Hints:
There is one protein chain. The longest helix is centred in the N-terminal third of the chain and has 17 residues, at 20-36. The two termini are 29 Å apart. Strand 12 and strand 13 form a beta hairpin. The chain has helices spanning 4-16, 20-36, 58-66, 140-147, and strands at 44-46, 70-77, 80-86, 92-94, 100-102, 110-111, 118-122, 126-128, 133-134, 151-156, 162-163, 176-178, 183-185. It is of the alpha/beta class.
Amino acid sequence: xxxxxxxxxxxxxxxxxxxxxxxxxxxxxxxxxxxxxxxxxxxxxxxxxxxxxxxxxxxxxxxxxxxxxxxxxxxxxxxxxxxxxxxxxxxxxxxxxxxxxxxxxxxxxxxxxxxxxxxxxxxxxxxxxxxxxxxxxxxxxxxxxxxxxxxxxxxxxxxxxxxxxxxxxxxxxxxxxxxxxxxxxxxxx
Length: 189
């Protein structure tokens, strides 16, 4: 059985090997599955801006904005992370780890209110059908989810990132996983 570090290395490589045109097509298929989900009726959705070979949520976000959804993007501060509502991609700037983050201080941004029910779309390196997730190892999402227990968590990944087994660990479990080929219900709160 592989360790967390070994799984991270194996599945990051699998994701990186997906050709850009295939990744683009799969990202579109994932966006379509996300739009069809029951939870898409939710007004507030916490999302991310893709880095490297992650699922690109640009198309999903563009359509969600057109549909009047409130989209919140993460910004890191030290070891913590907060989500801020943005209404346009121009409100993002390069932040920690070269991730595009809300430009706090440049625009009047609204911080996500933890009382509000919302959906969080999470990136990751590897997921299991049971909802276990291995992220990048910094723990930002896990610390955030410990404080915001009312969020419905949806792991977003390519089908090549699904593993037969991911050991349960400190990473917060997903309630649902969406790939280009399927939506997987993992657990309910």
